[in-house]
């Protein structure tokens, strides 16, 4: 009797393991015909070397020799990104002193512009007078190739929404101020439902939580929302069940974490698609703006990958993806 019980337990365990494998292995799934979709980080801008990079580093002072004339987070850079093949453009916003939203990356003005102080302490009109190309240099300050060319190029969020009425945008709230989330929700609430569907907002936990309360139909993402989705998924995803927190959101998955997700890549992407959630693959968590920027980076993608790709060099990556 004891031997029979052990034999039954063995077959039950074996059946369970077989179920887990068959329910999550992408080896048994025909890869989709779709190509990866491309998310252009800050549009098409100048890139920089990342050796010794910290949160306080002025990246405008370490750009590579310019290969194109565009500055990040500007209307020309976004147009260039879409023209190059971007499916979505990411942009950064700050609330201004007069309660508008300026599109600019840095918390302070001193690195990139000829202004000083905290970005949000200025009115939009004051910010528009600045030269946002003032601080860029590729040779340690010997030359400044964009100085004088960035005057008036800092756009407002309203200008971006007007310029790209039917394109997908990823808006990054740079603060952790809940009031900023509330004000952004009030601005976006005036948009029609079909336009709102093309917009995703991510950022600090507090502004995103405040925005979700005001505008629950908007797709959002924060560290808290990522944890709320992925931790339960890691626990129960082997069953094929997708947690409620994973529905209608966005996931920015580090490439070193992705292989540990149940069903990665094809079953996982299919499950997220079925609950209206977008998945973007980033390099090593996306720290310090890292993205899939070279042909070598693309070689690390899973065969048949059809999710999103985070890139700083849409001009390089789009032709390679479209050539496949």
From TrEMBL:
Instruction: Tell me which Gene3D superfamilies the record gives.
Output: Phosphatidylinositol (PI) phosphodiesterase
GO MF terms here are: hydrolase activity
Q: Identify the enzyme class.
A: hydrolase
Q: Which keywords label this protein?
A: Hydrolase
* Assigned EC number: 3.1.4.-
Pfam families named among the record's database cross-references: GDPD (PF03009)
Protein's recorded name:
Glycerophosphodiester phosphodiesterase family protein
């Amino acid at each position: 009797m004891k031997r029979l019980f052990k034999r039954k337990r063995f077959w039950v365990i074996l059946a369970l393991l077989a179920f887990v494998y068959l329910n999550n292995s992408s080896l048994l799934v025909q890869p989709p015909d779709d190509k990866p979709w491309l998310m252009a980080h800050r549009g098409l801008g100048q890139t920089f070397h990342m050796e010794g990079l910290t949160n306080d580093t002025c990246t405008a002072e370490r750009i590579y020799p310019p290969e194109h004339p565009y500055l990040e987070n500007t209307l020309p850079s976004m147009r260039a990104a879409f023209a190059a093949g971007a499916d979505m453009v990411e942009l950064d916003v700050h609330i201004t002193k007069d309660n508008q939203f300026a599109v600019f990356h840095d918390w302070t003005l001193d690195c990139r512009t000829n202004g000083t102080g905290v970005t949000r302490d200025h009115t939009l009109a004051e910010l528009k007078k600045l030269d946002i190309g003032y601080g860029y240099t590729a040779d340690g300050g010997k030359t400044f190739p964009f100085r004088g060319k960035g005057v008036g190029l800092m756009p407002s969020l309203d200008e971006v929404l007007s310029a790209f009425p039917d394109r997908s945008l990823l808006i990054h709230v740079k603060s952790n101020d809940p009031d900023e989330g509330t004000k952004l929700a009030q601005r976006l609430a005036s948009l029609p439902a079909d336009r709102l569907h093309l917009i995703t907002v991510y950022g600090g936990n507090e502004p995103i939580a405040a925005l979700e309360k005001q505008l629950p139909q908007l797709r959002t993402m924060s560290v808290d929302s990522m944890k709320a989705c992925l931790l339960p998924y890691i626990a129960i995803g082997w069953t094929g069940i997708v947690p409620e927190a994973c529905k209608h959101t966005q996931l920015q998955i580090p490439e070193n974490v992705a292989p540990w997700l149940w069903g990665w890549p094809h079953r996982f992407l299919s499950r997220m698609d079925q609950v209206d959630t977008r998945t973007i693959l980033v390099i090593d968590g996306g720290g310090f703006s890292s993205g899939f920027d070279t042909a070598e980076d693309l070689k690390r993608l899973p065969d048949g990958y059809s999710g999103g790709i985070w890139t700083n060099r849409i001009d390089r990556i789009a032709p390679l993806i479209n050539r496949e």
